[in-house]
Amino acid sequence: xxxxxxxxxxxxxxxxxxxxxxxxxxxxxxxxxxxxxxxxxxxxxxxxxxxxxxxxxxxxxxxxxxxxxxxxxxxxxxxxxxxxxxxxxxxxxxxxxxxxxxxxxxxxxxxxxxxxxxxxxxxxxxxxxxxxxxxxxxxxxxxxxxxxxxxxxxx
Length: 155
Hints:
Largest sheet: 6 strands, antiparallel
Helix content: 40-55%
Order of helices and strands: HHEEHEEEHE
Distance between the termini: 56 Å
Number of strands: 6
Structural class: alpha+beta
Shape: globular
Low-confidence stretches: 1-21, 23-27
């Protein structure tokens, strides 16, 4: 039993350390640059979305039915952003982008993606797992900081 608890503590603390290290690297990209990449990454049919500081964004299919999109984005980030070892919150998928450099990392929250720029990674040709872990940790950091930097609404 002690071994399981110790292992869980190590895993959780390593997630936090990785999230802290990400903060230093993501500062390199300005909000304007990040927004530009996200606009190119999102399918144009999705017009309503909210972007967080570290590159996680949430797409809303029926934003006109939501009273306050910012509050809903914060709620979803609190529910689906944090990474917990051993559960679906740790799962991810990778999408290679065509219109801009980088990848999207999906998680277990519907419509929630995290943008990863190649310049953020130390490896020139990163594996899917490197990209996924990095993006997942950026999402975890966004769930802790809860800083919205941009809201895109259908015109």
